[in-house]
Specification:
globular, Rossmann fold, seven-stranded parallel sheet, 20 helices, six-stranded parallel sheet, about 450 residues, alpha/beta
Length: about 450
């Protein structure tokens, strides 16, 4: 089989989760298949000659040829919108749904006027679920979510009912098979001499995370534990289209307000290159992750947790997601309630004791073995070896079979976005002092209000 991996994120020396996932997919598949990993950016020369698979940039100009040269196409996120010709392809389409985008979106966009943003994200997921032959997810919870979604969209039907469960495949994020070996310096070289017990926040500060509780905890503990430091490793995302989120600004402001900024609480700038990430992970004592009790948490799969496991570090995290359950079950760390400062303090104090710390190492190793890339990609290898088109999407006359009814959702959402833009223009004009000008516009406003209901 020939397999095309369409990465939604940049493939560079500095890679975030989606790009790392597709890089590791390519490495796992390459011994058995002809693999092309395509990214939205020009591939750096430093990466071109170091892989057992082809590395290219995907563009509107070359995408048709790329698709035609492969048997299976694996994609994620906005890729399906960017290249609508996938809907007409006779290739086996695999939608990677390990990131439930609308739930993350709702953590950022929760004002009434943000509804079109969320509607567009749901539409994006719907399109993938309507047209793909297989679906990847990260956990049993996500699998249940997407099976329900497929049922609502009519994809679980008499043609697919007896095989749909074999088409929704669990392929979680993973970690390298070999334990990390230090090859250089990490972040400790920039810390002061007193820093001996380091909590590592090993990724970005997104809106659905809770760094503020952790910063307040460090403030309360610092008088008794002058050796305690909290390091935020992820600064600016390597994909320049992803901007710094408000939560990161709030975290920096709180650290400054409490007098901890870049003393007890350190914010690293930039993004650590993937090939030296292990040096920074090995500098930590504890891996931490804090989030809220939300629907996003329930269906999430916190990939930074796997980085801590790979480096052999015990973890303190908040409960609510599947990896928190795994950490508690394997005794790979301590799980606390969301926003519970006292519980965080107790957990840090417990692991600060070397004897207690040592009791969690075996659990970390056991859980790390479970999530090795060689283990978690077995189901992906099986899928690619036996791939077939979904029976309700068999190609007709060279085109992928369409929905039996006209789907107006895309047009409706586009109209909603136009309506929001029009209302914003009306708000501006209605503030004018000219009653003659605004009279007909007020009539239009009443019509828009009636149409909304």
């Amino acid at each position: 089989m020939s397999i095309l991996l369409l990465s939604p994120d940049v493939i560079t020396e500095r890679m975030a989760g989606p790009a790392i996932r597709y890089w590791e997919f390519a490495k796992a598949l390459a011994p058995f298949h002809t693999v092309t990993l395509a990214a939205p950016n020009a591939i750096p020369d430093t990466l071109q000659h170091t892989t057992s698979f082809s590395l290219v940039q995907h563009t509107p100009e070359n995408i048709t040829e790329l698709i035609s040269c492969h048997d299976i196409v694996i994609f994620q996120g906005y890729i399906f919108d960017l290249y609508p010709m996938l809907r007409e392809s006779d290739k086996v389409l695999v939608a990677d749904l390990y990131d439930p985008v609308p739930l993350e979106g709702l953590e950022q966009h929760h004002a009434p006027q943000d509804r079109p943003i969320i509607a567009d994200q749901v539409r994006m997921m719907n399109e993938q679920l309507k047209w793909a032959d297989y679906f990847l997810c990260a956990s049993e919870r996500q699998r249940d979510l997407w099976l329900g979604h497929l049922l609502a969209l009519g994809r679980i039907n008499p043609l697919t009912y007896h095989e749909i469960q074999q088409r929704v495949i669990i392929v979680p994020f993973g970690l390298p098979d070999s334990a990390p070996q230090r090859t250089g310096t990490g972040f400790r070289q920039s810390l002061d001499n007193e820093a001996e017990f380091v909590l590592l926040w090993g990724g970005g500060i997104w809106e659905w995370f809770d760094p503020l509780t952790l910063i307040r905890v460090v403030h309360r503990l610092s008088p008794r534990y002058p050796d305690l430091r909290l390091v935020f490793l992820g600064g600016q995302h390597p994909n320049t289209t992803i901007h710094t989120m408000p939560k990161q600004h709030r975290a920096i402001a709180l650290a400054q307000e409490l007098g901890l900024y870049n003393t007890q609480v350190i914010f690293q700038s930039g993004w650590v290159p993937y090939d030296v990430l292990h040096n920074h992970l090995l500098d930590a004592d504890i891996g931490v992750s804090a989030h809220f009790d939300s629907l996003e948490t329930h269906f999430s799969f916190r990939t930074r947790i796997l980085s801590y496991l790979w480096a052999g570090k015990p973890i303190i995290t908040t409960q609510g997601d599947v990896l928190a359950d795994e950490i508690a079950r394997h005794r790979a760390g301590i799980v606390v309630n969301p926003t519970d400062e006292d519980a965080w303090i107790a957990a840090i104090e417990k692991l600060h004791n070397p004897k207690n710390y040592a009791t969690y190492i075996d659990g970390v190793r056991m859980l790390a073995f479970k999530y090795r890339w060689s283990n978690v990609t077995q189901s992906l290898l099986s899928l690619c070896a036996n791939a077939s088109r979904a029976p309700d999407r068999i190609v007709e006359n060279g085109l992928r079979k369409s929905q039996p009814r006209r789907d107006c959702e895309h047009d409706y959402n586009a109209l909603q976005l136009q309506k929001v833009a029009l209302e914003q223009q009306l708000d501006f004009i209605e503030n004018s002092h000219s009653m003659r000008l605004t009279a007909p516009l007020r009539t239009l406003r009443r019509w828009l209000t009636h149409w909304k209901t």
